[in-house]
Amino acid sequence: xxxxxxxxxxxxxxxxSHTRIVVCCGSGGVGKTTTAAALGLRAVERGRRAVVLTVxxxxxxxxxxxxxxxxxxxxxxxxxxxxxxxxxxxxLDMKRTFDExxxxxxxxxxxxxxxxxxxxQSLSSSFAGTQEYxxxxxxxxxxxxxxxxxxIVDTPPSRSALDxxxxxxxxxxxxxxxxxxxxxxxxxAGGRSxxxxxxxxxxxxxxxxxxxxxxxxxxxxxxxxxxxxxxxGGFRQRAEMTYKLLQAxxxxxxxxxAPERDAxxxxxxxxxxxxxxxxxxxxxxxxRVHLSPAAGLSAARSAAAAEDLEARGEHDLTAAVxxxxxxxxxxxxxxxxxxxxxxxxxxxxxxxxVPAMPQDVHDLDGLHxxxxxxxxxxxTAVPRSA
Length: 386
Hints:
This protein is an alpha/beta fold. It is 57% helix and 12% strand.
């Protein structure tokens, strides 16, 4: 028996003045960036001032909004909507965000020491987890600025999309690790005597690290940690504040999936993880669902009719169309089964299905159409293409 899930009411979320943050998460290739942009445009059409922050390095968001590029600064998107709504878009620049934090929270000399340090330059560009932490920082900055009614976050693809939830804990583990405490010991104890203490207490460890990493690397790392020590506390505090903000009632998580086995499994993972973290889940968007204008003609009947025509050697074109229709109905049945598996496991999660579009979305008109389909809910049925 087919379960009917509650319908995700997108317009109710966008119209609620208490909703300040919408986070779109999901695996790669499911239309998450397009969904985030469409939600932003839909919110603007309904009178809100919104900014879309993408952490995904893909350039599709800029192209679909008519912009040549996106960077770390919100850019105004020129929409044709009337009223007070305005749409801005930006793409996270991980290193630039890190630099801005250092410049804002350290005195000029300490900031110079940090920004020119080789270890910092490597950390800010490629250290594991830096992107997710910087996403937390940028989201916090946008929210504290209070310039927008609504912030929509398009997270990176795959399960790492939720890694930013772990950013405060990961940062804490990094700062509290034995290696970092060892490097901080000279700065905390003060001066040359501290290095004597370090050599006395950890001589073997320091010697091993020097042989492994090299004396210059250890020196750069010690200089970096010493200069950054005063800034780290603020990092952790802001990350924890943003984490609490994500748990607050004004935030809505929207999971995006395609009606395929792997993508729906990932959607289940996201839903369960959000529940564990007590994050407010709005619902699931099942994107690119295949429908047919002749849904009353089953795959079996269509295939049988095609076989009959082929056997008689008549109406080759009609037989080919019937074969295509049979394939489409079989695909729709598989997608429907995947949706039912998710609904059986998560019967209380609101769901909205978005039909597949005849072509890729590459402009504001396409985003507007997606926004309408998101708002139309489960009753929408339009011709679909494979």
